[in-house]
Specification:
By secondary structure, this protein is an alpha/beta fold. The chain folds into five domains: 1-40 and 137-165, DNA polymerase, domain 1; 42-133, Nucleic acid-binding proteins (OB fold (Dihydrolipoamide Acetyltransferase, E2P)), CATH 2.40.50.140; 167-228 and 628-666, no CATH class; 238-427, P-loop containing nucleotide triphosphate hydrolases (Rossmann fold, 3-Layer(aba) Sandwich), CATH 3.40.50; 437-590, P-loop containing nucleotide triphosphate hydrolases (Rossmann fold). A seven-stranded parallel β-sheet has the order 11-12-10-13-14-9-15, with helices on both faces. Strand 4 (74-82) and strand 5 form a beta hairpin. Helix 3 (148-162) runs antiparallel to helix 5 (183-191), helix 5 crosses helix 6 and helix 17 packs antiparallel against helix 19. Bound molecules: adenosine-5'-diphosphate and magnesium ion. Magnesium ion binds next to helix 9.
Length: 666
């Protein structure tokens, strides 16, 4: 296809300005959709208040009088005859319009009305009268040196010259099925809508196209994964697993049962498992993971469980040993701080197969680690693992089944797209007896109340987490810091209770030691940054206090809050902040992580929750996965049907879509 510079009117200067806002190709230009539309409807002079905004058209009655001031400034005045009376118009710095503003010509004026003087101070004058229908004007994201008008001109020129060549990703079958307009017409309308109805119609069509292409990719990858990734097949002794589950100290929730069932099916199937297990904090994902590891192990393969921090890996290791206490299975822990000679022994054991289960951090996937027959890899808090690290595992030439666990509940809508090439299992229901955590939003001025609440908990023999956004004071911020809070808490409670801190900059051995002390109740108040966010389990901790809570996303707050309420005692969470109370108040009433992450999405936009890495995949030009969920589902269904339909094997659209995936991945 032609290049951007081939579009008439786009010279080197405008080319570089277009590049600046991310427009490099004709396709980019044509899909630079307006971000809003101004609707121009003729106003009535008598109905506008003094100082009010007005849009009005009429014929020029008097020759414009031009006045020039210092510094190149100028002003023009003329009289305009409109349907609702005669009005004066003045406009600044449009001397260049003078030759067009001839007596008798029709113009449309947008500006502010001064009623006493009967003059409109215009911000804009457009040539031509308004029609009786509303005029809809697109408004584009521009940059300095590139006006809305330029943008519109370039786009329309590109449409005129190359509109026919623009590729349409919607296959004919679906164009016909939904009576969609062709691409060129659709683009023409989105950039020059005549009515709101037409605009709405093509908006849906263009959204559908975008989502169709997106879902095609996801479906394609999923199918490729399944084809390429012939995994291991194994026989699972379901009776044995069933018995094991019977012997657990609690009964699995039905969501847990279902997740176990689906995972065991995955393990047995020839297809390689690529599954996300998501559930709120405390929903009981870990036990599901352990059961999967056990099943894998009993079928003769090694299992690895990877956690993002040493604290968490250690905790999982201890729990796993407890879980397996009746079984004769060798379990080891491998982290960055495992002593060298232990490491050598563990490497050897993994290689010769004498170790059946390994728990650890990234250390598990380093070069020197070789496995005898790794059959299952589970990663906890998967969104914290880089894509790169995940790939690393796969590159070891192993084809283990993979299960990702995530406690950031992602509404199905997004899970479907973001983790679209994975299967998703969700644990919604919480284990019985889990209570709601009483949550309060407090101001800094109410700190005394908070300290009293803390004291009440401490007196009962319980422990408290205190969270601050920063570690140390910095010059240009008065946010709470771990160090400052330590001093304050010592003043308040130092004589009776042990207080300590843990944060991300500490050596991991020191961190582990303090966490261990907190677990053993040798420390009653633990002050920390968000390092405790991830999975730490201390049932005797019943209170969570978060300073400057407005600094965190709701999902993060929810995660933090999930650290308490793990035992039988009633637990509480206090969010301290002087701003953003409305958002934080959501936490007082909502305790469903899915609802909270949905709120987060609404408030913070789709990219934020997942960091920048994934947000690239999520940036749609016209569609919005939250608002256009219905279209998304339809596009998902259609694209899959299209993909699997052999008759379309040679189809140009399919080829293009597949090619675009290959490009993306390169
Ligand atoms: P998650 O990893 O999803 O945050 P965990 O697996 O750590 O949650 O579970 C939290 C706690 O609940 C653990 O102490 C676990 O033993 C317990 N638990 C898990 N499932 C159940 C259940 N069905 N009934 C009662 N307690 C459960
Ligand atoms: Mg967990």
């Amino acid at each position: 296809m032609a290049e951007l510079k081939d579009v008439k009117g786009i010279g080197p200067k405008s080319l570089s300005l277009l590049n600046k806002i991310g427009i490099f190709t004709i396709d980019d230009l044509l899909t630079h959709y307006p971000f809003r539309y101004d609707v121009l409807v003729r106003d009535d002079l008598s109905k506008i208040e003094d100082g009010g905004k007005i849009i009005i058209d009429g014929k020029i009655e008097s020759m414009p009088i031009l006045m020039r001031f210092k510094a190149g400034l100028n002003k023009m005045n003329f009289r305009l005859v409109t349907a609702s009376g005669i009005v004066g118009v003045s406009i600044f710095n449009r001397a260049f319009l003078k030759s067009q503003l001839t007596v008798g010509s029709g113009v449309t004026v947008i500006g502010k009305l001064d009623k006493s003087k009967n003059v409109i101070t215009a911000s804009e004058i457009k040539m031509g009268l308004l029609t009786n229908k509303a005029k809809i004007e697109p408004v584009y994201h521009c940059t300095s040196g590139l006006t809305n008008k330029n943008m519109s001109t370039y786009i329309n020129m590109a449409l005129l010259m190359y509109g026919k060549e623009v590729f349409d990703y919607i296959p004919d079958v679906y164009l016909e099925k939904y009576h969609f307009l062709n691409k060129k017409t659709a683009l023409n309308i989105i950039h020059n809508p005549s009515t709101m109805e037409k605009l709405k119609e093509v908006t849906i069509r263009l959204k559908y196209e975008e989502l169709f292409a997106f879902m095609f990719k996801i479906n394609y990858l999923k199918i490729q994964n399944k084809k390429k990734n012939q995994g291991l097949t194994r026989q699972i002794n379901r009776l044995q697993i069933e018995k094991f589950i019977q012997d657990l100290p609690f009964e699995l929730t039905s969501d847990q049962k279902e997740a176990v069932d689906v995972i065991l099916n995955d393990l047995e199937s020839v297809h390689r498992m690529n599954r996300l297990l998501q559930g709120d904090v405390g929903s009981g994902k870990t036990v599901v993971a352990f059961i999967a590891m056990l099943a894998n192990c009993l079928s003769g393969y090694q299992s690895a469980l990877m956690a993002p921090t040493e604290i968490l890996a250690t905790q999982h290791f201890q729990n796993l040993k407890l879980f397996l206490k009746e079984e004769n299975i060798s379990v080891e822990l491998l982290t960055g701080s495992t002593p060298k000679k232990d490491k050598q022994r563990i490497y050897q054991g993994l290689k010769d197969g004498s170790i059946s289960m390994i728990v650890g951090t990234h250390a598990l996937i380093q070069e020197e680690v070789e496995y005898n027959n790794l059959g299952l890899v589970i990663t906890d808090e998967q969104h914290r693992f880089g894509v790169h690290q995940r790939a690393n595992l796969q590159n070891k030439g192993l084809k283990p089944d993979v299960l990702y666990m995530s406690a950031t509940p992602i509404p199905r809508t997004y899970a479907l797209t973001i983790f679209g090439d994975m299967d998703v299992s969700t644990i919604k229901e919480r284990p019985k007896g889990r209570q709601k955590i009483d949550t309060y939003v407090k101001k800094n001025s109410e700190i005394k109340d908070v300290l009293k609440m803390m004291y009440e908990e401490l007196k009962k023999g319980h422990q408290v987490y205190v969270i601050a956004p920063l570690i140390e004071e910095s010059e240009n911020s008065d946010l709470a810091t771990v160090c400052k809070l330590k001093d304050q808490m010592r003043l308040a409670f130092g004589e009776r209770y042990q207080i300590d801190i843990v944060h991300g900059k500490m050596a991991s051995a020191a961190k582990d030691m303090i966490m261990e002390q907190f677990k053993n109740n040798d420390v009653q108040i633990l002050i920390s940054t968000t390092v405790v966010e991830v999975g730490v389990d201390v049932p005797n901790a019943t209170m969570m206090v978060i300073f400057d809570a407005d600094r965190f996303g709701l999902s993060t707050l929810h995660q933090l809050r999930g650290r308490v309420g793990r035992g039988t005692a009633r637990s509480l969470c206090v969010l301290i902040s002087d701003s953003d109370a409305e958002r934080l108040k959501i936490m007082e009433t909502v305790d469903d992580g899915f609802v909270i992450s949905e709120e987060d999405f609404k408030l913070r936009g789709q990219g934020d929750l997942f960091g920048t890495k994934q947000s690239g995949d999520m940036s749609f030009k016209i569609a919005n996965i939250r608002l256009d969920y219905k279209i998304l589902l339809q596009a998902k269904k259609d694209s899959k049907e299209y993909l699997l339909n052999k008759e379309f094997d040679q189809d140009e659209i399919k080829k293009r879509l597949v090619a675009s995936i290959t490009n993306d991945r390169a």
